[in-house]
């Protein structure tokens, strides 16, 4: 199939590369010339395991990037994988979606024959019907269901395992309109995903447009709230001297709870959970509903880094002292620092007058843009040397192997927000919930 993907972010690039690898012909459209030439040179524009290999293999043959929207005219399907950030109040910003939809519409005005427009981005319920469809209709002069069809197909990929999640999804959610237009859209989407479904057994959920939009938010809100709940229970465990991980492992044996996503710690970050929980809270409030449980999930998440800092305060006054922050990425396997819990931790240390030295295997340059004035080390060992305390904010595997490196600390105090360091003799160790 001839497929176009608008947007070369995490979702767009991964989707384009995976669908090219599945045998389709892909055009990836982005306005950023640098990103476009990078993809055409066979280099992934983001750090994501396995993506470089796919882009290198298919660039120039089945995968082509361009800044020119005209190229979507020759494709059968266009996925909109544009950013949907939130403002300070949590309100979703649909400017990129509107502009992208209009640009697609302008091309469809000149095109004869069927075309399916698929919303991939995370958007609040009714956005496809009330924002995307009107923008495409206005620019194309055509009517949804007649001149073109529309679908909503959310993405559930995680950073760090994006390629795997895209190639081997748990589920594929296909939201379509009622009637013949919906049937046509489903047929096209089944053809798009046929090679992936042939190799891998995923559930396919066929549903409405706004249901598909809500499924994405419900999925992320549920997971974020699940972590906040285990963090809250972990905080109570800590007060009683109970090991929160033992408790989590035991409750996870109840199949209604499940063993996954029960790691208590310094909280959730990333580009999805904070943005999506904020957006659905804002959207609910606009409808007159107060989503108190989700607001509490956010409040617990904001409290966790402060609890980590509070534990540090019980051991030492860090004013004027060197303090190591181990892990800057919002989770291991990525260089993404968006909403990383290391950010409020570093802010708290700066407020306390500490000399902060950060270390991360891949995210240092991104954090340097955020905090240009703190020190950055080339290794965990270098960060620990001479430090009066170390705070662990990301569960990178390499931290588990640290051992003799603690001997070089001026004061061997470790406050662990991710349970990666083992308790050992000579180390003053505090876990955030254990
Ligand atoms: C998430 C969703 O998992 C994915 O389905 C969606 O499409 C995008 O958002 P991602 O943000 O890449 O993916 O990361 P994820 O692995 O889900 O972790 C999110 C945050 O939760 C991280 O900060 C992680 O450290 C934290 N987390 C996760 C915990 O604190 N405890 C856990 O048990 C699991």
TrEMBL record:
GO terms for biological process: polysaccharide biosynthetic process; UDP-glucuronate biosynthetic process. Residues 324-423 form the UDP-glucose/GDP-mannose dehydrogenase C-terminal domain. SMART domains: UDPG_MGDP_dh_C. Keywords: NAD, Oxidoreductase. The active site is at 272 (nucleophile). NAD(+) binds at residues 30, 84, 122, 159, 275, 338. SUPFAM superfamilies: 6-phosphogluconate dehydrogenase C-terminal domain-like, NAD(P)-binding Rossmann-fold domains, UDP-glucose/GDP-mannose dehydrogenase C-terminal domain. This is UDP-glucose 6-dehydrogenase.
